């Protein structure tokens, strides 16, 4: 085989194995959610895929069995209540966070968590970290965002509660999620994936299977 041919094959092998997303691909994948569409986040969501950029985040994701999130606009129309309930094998943590609805008309916003209350199994924990949420465009029953603390961050992909149990469908999106992770500078070798059945802290994953649960 000629050297030229060998190096061409080598080049193709490299492109084939670690195809890094191009700038154009990243622009298509990592589109910030316009602030005018903020209402799309209201509702209840189940985390189906997530990665972090730090050991603390990896440890958390490694032990997580389910994460349920609710975004709700309060009646003042200025505050979004952001409630996250994380189930681990033998305890639950809940985050109660208030976000301010942006009042200026910038095209998109980073939402700052201006108050965070954390409870572990119902007991209030000391918590003094900051939080910032960036939202990205995604499919109609999906929520895609990053959550940044002062030290590390998460890339989080949610499905609307109700369409959260179709694990095969989730799998079909993993390649896109990995590409998005690369675009946003996240390693993706230790992802969290929802198993489709684990219950949430406060309710069953499949209420119809347990009629006594409301
Ligand atoms: C996750 O679980 C492992 C093994 O049980 C433990 O060593 C580690 O501290 C846990 N990490 C977190 C963040 O809870
Ligand atoms: C909030 O928005 C709704 C719908 O636009 C409106 O009916 C309501 O009066 C608003 N409430 C306040 C406190 O501004
Ligand atoms: C969020 O704001 C609401 C309404 O002002 C308030 O009742 C609630 O305690 C706040 N939550 C946190 C975690 O500060
Ligand atoms: C938050 O708490 C940690 C540990 O208790 C401490 O090291 C850090 O300085 C605190 N940060 C702030 C902003 O108070």
Automatic annotation (TrEMBL):
Where does the protein principally reside?
Answer: secreted
Q: Which SUPFAM superfamilies match?
A: Lipocalins
Q: Which organism is it from?
A: Crenichthys baileyi (White River springfish)
Q: Where in the cell is it found?
A: Secreted
- Could you tell me what this protein is called? Uncharacterized protein
GO CC terms, sorted: extracellular region
Signal peptide feature range: 1-19
Q: Which UniProt keywords apply?
A: Glycoprotein, Secreted, Signal
